[in-house]
Specification:
InterPro entries: 6-blade_b-propeller_TolB-like. This protein is mostly beta strands. It is built from 1 helix and 18 strands.
């Protein structure tokens, strides 16, 4: 990588996307062969790609729905911009991103697309998860804040194939499971299962394994 990577996702088509905010770039990779397939860079210094999210169950070979969203910051405004047909276009000069992307909170540092147009986001400096639904008819959307009393500073979000949301956070040694409207279902994993200051988590392609990275440790 030419610059420090910040976020990485792998779609259902087994295509990887790595964000590099410091160079305003997004890199498309083959995760098995570890080769770069494509790189897109914005020439506008006011545009950067913060993070990315793969959409679950978007088709193993042929895309049956949007496979991936990028959180693109354009002059201080954040948009969830869809990647379709493996094409990445970082050109805001014509208003392409702002006209086709879904508006998001400008403080988003991590987000997860549960399905097309429904996002769960970690917000910089805040102790809640923001739920954004842009999947309604037209461009109408709504947002709500999911406050979790037993979690400080959410760090990462993922979902299983039953559309349950899993969230990790600083200052706690557990993983929360939420519904799509942001309500806490339960705490399926805690320190008894080896959870210590979790900072990142994701499921494998078959959704039968949940990988969790503990903060300050060199193990999953």
């Amino acid at each position: 990588m030419e610059s420090q990577p910040y976020d990485v996702v792998i779609t259902s088509q087994n295509t990887g996307y790595v964000t590099q905010p410091n160079t305003r770039s997004i890199v498309q990779i083959d995760p098995d062969r570890l080769i770069v397939l494509h790189k897109a860079t914005s020439n506008n210094k006011c545009t950067s790609v913060m993070c990315a999210s793969a959409v679950p169950n978007s088709g193993r070979d042929i895309e049956v729905k949007v496979p991936c969203y990028l959180a693109v910051n354009v002059s201080g405004s954040m948009y969830a911009y869809s990647v379709k047909n493996y094409r990445i276009i970082l050109n805001d000069d014509t208003g392409h991103i702002s006209s086709t992307g879904h508006p998001m909170d400008s403080r988003v540092v991590k987000f997860h697309a549960v399905k097309n147009g429904i996002f769960f986001s970690c917000i910089s400096g805040q102790n809640y998860i923001k739920v954004t639904n842009c999947a309604l008819q037209g461009w109408d959307s709504y947002e709500q804040d999911a406050k979790i009393g037993t979690m400080n500073t959410p760090t990462d979000i993922c979902s299983d194939n039953n559309e349950h949301i899993y969230a990790s956070g600083q200052g706690c040694n557990n993983i929360h499971r939420l519904t799509q409207d942001g309500k806490v279902l339960d705490i399926p994993l805690d320190s008894r299962h080896g959870i210590t200051q979790p900072v990142a988590l994701c499921f494998n392609q078959n959704y039968d394994k949940l990988y969790i990275a503990n903060g300050g440790e060199h193990r999953f």
